[in-house]
Amino acid sequence: MKALTYHGPGRRTWGDVPDPVVVDPEDAVVRVDAVTICGTDLHILKGDVPEVAEGRVLGHEAVGTVVETGDGVRTVAVGDRVLVSCISACGRCAYCRRGMYGQCTGGGGWVLGHLVDGTQAEYVRTPFADNSLHRLPEGVADETALVFADILPTAFEVGVRNGRVGPGDTVAVVGAGPIGLAAIATARLYGPRRIIAVDLAADRLKAARRAGADEVLRGDGDTGASVRALGPDGMGVDVAIEAVGVPDTFELCTRVVRPGGRVANVGVHGKPAVLHLEDLWIKDVTITTGLVDTGSTPLLLDLLAAERLDVDGLVTHRFGLDEMQEAYDVFADAADTGALKVALFRT
């Protein structure tokens, strides 16, 4: 089969690799019908994730059809149309029993495209299929379902839930890429008073408006003062969600949050950021980090089916599966191409 493989920082290849097979009784093999590229894949290609071995098939998000299952698989069957979750969960370890699937110590967690071969291929072996594949509702298009593999649960769990967004809150989302837009869309479920989006790109700020942001600010000049002024009494926001993964945006979040507020870091950081405890220690600020667990995926799919969650516009560019290299170039050059989320389809 064809797949996208990693060969060290800055080097990737689309070419032939062996077809995946069932290895463990709880495995399933899925034919990939639609797949996407994540910002984390770009971090891998920059060398920010050294655990990824040379030759690894990248990717951890897909929609597909089950073509083979191990003897231990019970909840999905050959022919089922499924969402391939970015997180695999053994379901038995102490972390899984607490619903912390991202921290699974039984062979799961974020493994696809990281520690085992991933989804940017014609077929993928998915460990712990009963816990890691979701049968899709009838009528949900592949493109729509695709964003529920990672960015929707990530933004919701690590940003909105960790940030404890509540009715009447003022929320700043720093970064209006796919994760930031998903954070805006899911934060609206909790009835905040105001959502403020911050980004450098005019196109992404327009997308933030469409996703439901009440205010948009270009992230240059004295952005911190501008965001703080939009909070209650001009003292800052209740929740600041970091959705980029660079030091400047994290530090901006810590500057705009009000006393007693929350900073929820979602971005994947490849460099250290400064934590100004000399300013924060007295403000009762809570800072959270996290890897998505995907425990919310069934809920989010239900909200989609009930038409309570609008994800239109997150996918901006579409390709055939064999156009993987071009799709990577377009996604990596988002400042010029305007790419938010790219989708690649089996043709």
Concise summary:
By secondary structure, the protein is α/β, with parallel strands linked by helices.
Describe this structure as you would to a colleague.
With 347 residues, the chain is α/β, with parallel strands linked by helices. It has 2 domains: 202 residues, Medium-chain alcohol dehydrogenases, catalytic domain (Quinone Oxidoreductase, Chain A, domain 1, Alpha-Beta Complex), CATH 3.90.180.10; 136 residues, 3-Layer(aba) Sandwich (Rossmann fold). 27% of the residues lie in helices and 24% in strands. It is built from 13 helices and 15 strands. The strands form 3 sheets. Strands 3, 4, 5, 6, 7, 14 and 15 form a 7-stranded mixed sheet that branches. The protein has a 6-stranded parallel sheet with strand order 10-9-8-11-12-13, sandwiched between helices. Strand 12, helix 10 and strand 13 form a beta-alpha-beta unit. Helix 5 packs across helix 6 and helix 8 packs parallel to helix 9. The two termini are 14 Å apart. The mean pLDDT is 96.
